[in-house]
Design goal:
Radius of gyration: 53 Å
Distance between the termini: 167 Å
Low-confidence stretches: none
Strand content: 25-35%
Number of strands: 37
Length: 617
């Protein structure tokens, strides 16, 4: 080994000796360098000159091959580059990103997601591109031509709160629980419809994808990130529900009332009312099939109209200090709709197709069994009115209305309505048409007999000191209501439906209304019996103001009066505004202080002019 190394060293020495003895060795190299120096100097001068010319030529322009995003701005001035960017970015800003979810798409504008582009800063950045590179590299790129563009990113700002808000709105449109199947009926056939996955919008992931797309100015759509949840009802449960649904609509359901009344829920109705919903049963989700309770309630409301009745209080009579029953009370009936709905639901899911409706009995508040507890033991107030000069049909209506409220009992603390107490006004109920206007025959009207009774009740209530809830004065001061030395302002008009007379029994006991019509005296008297409440009632004389005298006469055609005959029907009366002050005291304490106001128009004398054929008269 040592011999081999020695040989190699000796060979190297011989080669070095030959090089020193070469005739062109060192002097040749020196001559070569001296010849190259001028060429090198010229090259440097050209290089520096080129750098100067390039720098000067692009002092106010962007270097060639510079691209902003994907927009070429090389060799443009800053103003030209700005104008080009603004024009090129206009469409982009109108729709910088497309968001997709299945077949749905959203196309927000830049302002919707808080995106703004700083064109000024972007152009400044493009202007600086390449100016810090070595001179030789700038010259080479300029003279030779850069093979690949120098890309300058666009300066953009994103308001992430705006972006987050926009994505939250999308999330609300996408989010849904798993869709469980539902049962539908079409032409009597059961069909299973719906069902599907639930979706949970993944906002952070979607926001990250949107930001990446915006920064890259990508033109491709961005798919929205969601978490998918499968439905929870098994096919076995769906099959069970389908079988039950077929059974529920297979035949009608019969409802039976307490008087053997019957109503039938047809199969068509059952089909229309069939519903389904998912329910949790021992940790599992099942498809519950049932009848729509709202539809059942609406149907039972109509059934209840045939069943329900209000209890009727007993009518009483006061006779020389003795209280007795004038007419017995009646039980009311009420259908328990909530219980009935439950029974129908049970029947629909069973083999039984008949339901006994739950109907309760309602006792009247006044009956022959509780007379002694009512506290009716003395007269507490009276009212009177005269009807001299009334036609026979008006007198008949006075008697009919008096009969309708005679014996009526108002429990302590209850409100009284004249309209409710008198009931239905019809010819079948015994009322007769009266002349209430020109050629107008009606069962009720302002001059009619029903208001004679309402006026008399009002007077008794006025002097009893009871709170008046509603009262309407007559439009005119009729002679009827000022007979028996009665003052104006103490009448009352009731037109059903419409105006009413209402008051409250504020005494500690029930109040009995007893009405007496005297053919001999031609008067109506209303007595109120109960327990003296121990208060005093002060009714001041009426204050009459703004009196207006009537002018002329009025003629009403009367189809019930023989043709050619003329009768005085209503006597003239002046119009006026009337106020009656009433004060109710218990001891020294004022417990009620009110004003009864009336406004009357002037009434000329009204003549009835007959138009009836004498053969029919």
């Amino acid at each position: 080994m040592e011999k081999i190394v020695a040989r190699e060293i000796e060979s190297w020495r011989e080669e070095a000796s030959e090089l020193r003895n070469y005739p062109y060795g060192r002097s040749f190299l020196l001559r070569l360098i001296r010849a190259a120096l001028p060429v090198l100097a010229v090259f440097v001068v050209v290089l520096l000159g080129s750098a100067f010319l390039i720098t000067r030529a692009y002092s106010d322009r962007i270097y060639p091959q510079v691209v902003v995003g994907n927009i070429a701005v090389g060799s443009l001035t800053q103003d030209d580059a700005k104008e080009k960017l603004e024009s090129s970015l206009e469409d982009y800003l109108n729709n910088p990103v497309v968001l997709t979810f299945g077949q749905l798409q959203w196309h927000p504008a830049a302002e919707d997601i808080g995106l703004t582009i700083d064109v000024e800063a972007t152009v400044n950045r493009a202007m600086r591109a390449g100016r810090e590179d070595p001179v030789i590299l700038v010259i080479a790129r300029t003279l030779v031509g850069q093979q690949s563009p120098e890309v300058v990113p666009i300066v953009m700002r994103i308001d992430e709160s705006r972006l987050s808000s926009y994505l939250s709105d999308i999330g609300r449109q996408i989010n849904r629980d798993p869709l469980n199947p539902s049962i539908q009926v079409s032409d009597g056939n059961i069909q299973i419809e719906g069902g599907g996955a639930g979706y949970t919008f993944l906002q952070p992931e979607t926001e990250s994808k949107v930001l990446t797309s915006l920064r890259k100015m990508s033109k491709g759509p961005v798919s929205i990130a969601v978490y998918t949840t499968a439905g929870t009802i098994s096919s076995q449960e769906v099959s069970k529900a389908e079988s039950l649904a077929k059974s529920m609509i297979s035949s009608p359901i019969t409802l039976v009332g307490d008087n053997q009344q019957k109503w039938q829920i047809t199969t068509d109705k059952l089909q229309d009312w069939l519903r389904s919903k998912p329910v949790k049963v021992k940790g599992n989700t099942e498809l519950d099939v049932y009848l729509d309770p709202v539809e059942l309630e609406n149907y039972l409301d109509s059934v209840a109209k045939d069943i329900n009745s209000q209890p009727v209080n007993a009518r009483l009579r006061w006779d020389n200090g003795h209280l007795s029953v004038l007419a017995p009370g009646k039980l009311g009936r009420r259908l328990d709709i909530d219980r009935a709905i439950g029974l129908i639901q049970e029947a629909a899911k069973s083999n039984s197709r008949q339901v006994q409706l739950p109907i309760s009995r309602i006792s009247p508040s006044v009956s022959e069994n509780n007379i002694a507890s009512l506290g009716i033991k003395e007269l507490i107030a009276s009212g009177v009115s005269g009807f001299r000069g009334s036609r026979p049909e008006r007198i008949d209506n006075i008697k009919k209305a008096a009969q309708a409220i005679n014996g009526y009992v108002i429990p302590a603390g209850s409100d009284f309505s004249f309209a409710d107490a008198i009931g239905k006004i019809s010819e079948s109920a015994g009322y007769k048409p009266e002349l209430v206007g020109d050629n107008r025959l009606e069962l009720q009207g302002w001059p009619g007999g029903i208001n004679q009774v309402a006026t008399t009740v009002f007077r008794a209530v006025l002097y009893a000191g009871l709170p008046i809830l509603e009262r309407h004065s007559m439009p005119y001061r009729l002679d009827f209501y000022q007979q028996e030395n009665q003052q104006p302002g103490t009448d009352a008009m009731v037109l059903i439906p419409g105006t009413d007379l209402r008051f409250t029994n504020s005494t500690p006991a029930a109040i009995l209304i007893q009405v007496r019509v005297s053919d001999q005296d031609q008067t109506v008297q209303v007595n109120l019996y109960g327990t003296d409440p121990g208060w005093s009632v002060d009714v001041k004389p009426p204050i009459i103001e703004n009196v207006v005298q009537p002018i002329g006469d009025i003629y009403w055609t009367d189809p019930t009066l023989e043709s050619g005959k003329t009768e005085t029907y209503l006597y003239a009366s002046a119009g006026a505004d009337v106020v009656i002050e009433r004060t109710v005291r218990k001891g020294t304490e004022v417990i009620l202080d009110d004003n009864i106001t009336s406004s009357y128009d002037p009434l000329p004398t009204v003549f009835a002019v007959g138009s009836a054929n004498s053969d029919n008269g």
